[in-house]
Amino acid sequence: MDELKKFVYFHDWYIDTLTVGDGYRLTLGMKLDDRRATVTFAGTSRCVVEHFGLLNIVYDIKILQPGGALYDKAIAALLRSEHFSKKQGRCIALVAATAGAEIIVEFESLEIATGLKGC
Fold it and tell me: Quick one: 115 exposed, middle or buried, by C-beta within 10 A (0-12, 13-18, 19+)?
């Protein structure tokens, strides 16, 4: 998951879309100045979205490791959510907010796509 590090964990990016796609895919659409990126959590088995609003600024996106306090809190939150599939994801990510949406996702793999904003 070194790909997140290349984007400084998406610090200060704005989440402007949240979509669910076929194959249990949860995608965040984000922007920062003239750049756009999507972060897709493929094989999403559970997620929790809180405080999603008109302004959603990412503090960071990190993959949580078992045994840490944040991991334990994430598991507790996910236990209150619905399962999307029978298979449990092997990774847990936390999208922490500077403002707005905080998201916890249990998933299989991470995909990042980037581009410039079009006209």
Answer: exposed
What is the rounded CA–CA span in Å between residue 2 and residue 4?
5
pLDDT band at 94 (very low <50, low <70, confident <90, very high): very high
- Each domain of the chain, given as residue ranges in start order, spans 2-108
Instruction: State the pLDDT at residue 107.
Output: 95
- Determine the pLDDT at residue 116: 56
Amino acid identity, position 7: F
User: Which is more confident, 55 or 22?
Assistant: 55
| Residue pair 30/16 in contact by the 8 Å Cβ criterion | yes
Rg of the Cα atoms in the chain: 14
Contact present, 58 and 30 (Cβ < 8 Å): yes
Question: Can you list the positions of beta strands (E) in the chain?
Answer: 14-21, 25-32, 35-42, 46-50, 57-63, 91-99, 102-107, 109-116
